[in-house]
Amino acid sequence: MPFQKLKPQVEDILQNKEASVDKRLTEVCELLETSIPYYDWVGFYFKNGNKEELKLRSFAGEPTDHEIIPFGRGICGQVAVSNKNFVVPDVKAQNNYIACSIHVKAEIVIPLFVKGENVGQIDIDSHTADPFSHEDEIFLEWLNEKVAEIL
Ligand code: SME
After folding, report:
1. Residues with Cβ within 6 A of ligand 1?
2. Residues of the chain above pLDDT 70, percent
3. Which atom from ligand 1 is nearest to the alpha carbon of 97?
4. What is the mean pLDDT, run by run of 10 residues, along the chain of 151 residues?
5. pLDDT tens, position by position, 69-100
6. Residue 48 burial (CB count, 10 A)
7. Cβ-Cβ contacts under 8 Å for 56 (sequence gap 6 or more)
8. 3-class state of residue 135 by DSSP
9. Residue 18 C-alpha to ligand 1 middle, in angstroms?
10. Cα 97 to ligand 1 centre (Å)
């Protein structure tokens, strides 16, 4: 797992105040998508103003039709209300799932908290079946804490 090697790179990107926050988030998505073989789409969704929905802010991978996701819908919408990590080893086994691509076999969504409030999430799709471990969760929780510091 390259997570320990990725951490300083993530910190460098996030601390680069020359770039906008959106640009930094996109660069983090690109870093993860290119560095981790089973991360095929990486994106950040955030609560859309005061609406009960998520809006896609930054991503790496194929463009998705699902830029807006109502709370409660799909894996992302469920995490918006549960405030809990959601690891899906097999997307076919989920009935509340929004398919973005026929290639996606697994997904992980980790909520992002600012001052204890669930304001968004990182969402990762994988073309590999059952690829995510507890190490992914720990790394992505760390990453979201770092992102929270620059929002
Ligand atoms: N599969 C997600 C939708 C977002 S795409 O993965 C980019 C879901 O079920 O919420």
Report:
1. 41, 43, 64, 66, 69, 74-77, 97-98, 100, 107, 123, 125
2. 99
3. 9
4. 91 98 98 98 98 98 97 98 98 96 97 98 98 98 98 96
5. 999 999 999 999 999 999 999 999 999 999 98
6. 18
7. 43, 44, 45, 64, 66, 67, 68
8. helix
9. 31
10. 7
